[in-house]
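RESIDUES AND SHAPES:
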Amino acid sequence: MTLYSRHQLIVLLVLLSAAGFGLAVGHWRRAHPDVVERLEQFDRTPPPAGSLAPPARFPASPERGHPRATPRSARQTSRAARIDLNRADVAELTQLPGIGPVLATRIVQAREADGPFAAVDDLHHVGGVSRRTIERLRRLVTVTR
């Protein structure tokens, strides 16, 4: 007689298989961040209107010895392309990642009520803006007086 019944062994095998699959997916995601970023953005970016061109294919993986291309999210945003928190309207703020229309409206209302932001860190006074969101926005926004 075994310690576990046949049904218990099957459940245990399924759970261990699911955990192993999860670990394998996590390892693959860490090993291929450029492909993961493209896959995550695939359903979020609509094709340009009137575009008949097929979607771009994944670039070939770089050969050994060649530097790996930096993902789009890690590239440095130019100062001119940054959105000014003290001048942006709701439509401009909603273009930022993690900022929807409701949060953009809160940012504009906070700016109007309390005066202009002195630094990007002042966003933590706005309800719904977490430290993580501020860190994500830091390279995309600027504050002028």
